Structure formats: structure tokens, C-alpha cells
Amino acid sequence: MIVPKWLAATVVVALVGLAVMLWRSTPPAQRLALRAPAVAGVTGEVASDAPLLAPVSDVTPLDREAKRFNRYDKDKNGPITRDEYLANRRKAFAKLDTDHDGKLSFDEYSVKAIAKFDTADVSRDDRLTPAEFATTAIKRKPRTKAVCPPGAQTAAPAAAEDGAEAQ
To answer: What residues does 38 pair with on adjacent strands?
Structure first.
């Protein structure tokens, strides 16, 4: 039996939606308890060998969507009109349309690229050498990794025990 693609896709979407609803129906505290086992005899602390987990947010996807909806619904009357939906695009267009004729010329559209080229073209010959072109590359911030000294997790409990023995 061959199943139409649209039917299979609908079933998959329905199952994913059901899984999300079931997951969201579980209180956040129980979800956290399912993900990180606690140390025996100590409440609220996670075993030192357990992986660190990000805190569970109480903000649901529905809350985020409601905030997004409210940002678009400028007059707060319920539905979002076409004008409200396109307002951000109109603002972006107005910033680019420097001569305010309602049309974007190529120069208006590419003003940043033109300025970048002009800044890089030190020789002012309307050509970029490899060295000049290299200055147009996007400058990205290097990713920094958290550096933990080896044995830092095991050294702290040992130091606490030494202090307890000295007293």
C-alpha cells in the first residue's frame, strides 16, 4: 500500500505536536528531575560526575509566540492587518530609499557595499589588490572555550576535608 506524501507528513506533524504537548504538560521540576539525577541523601544538588545542564525555562513556545504576535499587533485589536505585518519591511525600505522616491536604485540598495569598497580602495583606482580586498573580510570574534584546570572539581572537596581534619 502506497501512502501519499501529504498524509505521511500530516501524521508526522501530528505526532510531533502530541509529543510536545505531552512534554509541556509535565511540570518543569519533574522534567529537570528526569534529566539530572540528584546525589543520594542531598536534595537540590547534582552529582559531580553528572553532566551540567542548562536551566529549564518556564517560557513556553506559546509564550514566545504571543510576545511576537503582540509586537506586530500595533493597535492591539486582536488580528494583525497587512499594514501591521509589513510595517517593519516599510521601515527598512525607508532607511534605504535615501531620495524618498519610493524606488530603490542599485546605489541605494548597495550603499554599504559601495562604502566598503571605497574604504578598501586605498589607491583610488577603482580596483582592489589582494591586500586591499583582504580588508573587506568580515571580522568575526574568535570563539573562546571555557578552560577548566585539570582536577579542579576533585581538588575542592579534598581541600574541604583537609580543613575539617585540621580542626
So the answer is: 46
Backbone φ and ψ for 38, nearest 5 degrees, come out as -85, 160
Q: Are 56 and 28 in contact (CB under 8 A)?
A: yes
Is the model's pLDDT at 119 over the cut of 90? yes
The residue type at 56 = V
The SS3 assignment for 31 reads helix
Distances in whole angstroms, Cα of residue 66 to Cα of each of 11, 25, 81: 26, 19, 16
Task: Please give the C-alpha separations between residue 138 and each of 76, 79, 126, 127, in angstroms, as whole numbers.
Answer: 40, 40, 21, 19
Amino acid at 88: N
Relative orientation angle of helices 61-72 and 82-96, to the nearest 10 degrees: 70
pLDDT digits (tens, 9 = 90+) for 134-162: 998 888 888 777 777 676 555 445 444 55
Count helices and strands (H / E) in the chain. 8, 0
| Cell digits of residue 35 | 534529566
pLDDT at residue 29 in the model: 57
Q: Is the pTM higher than 0.90? A: no
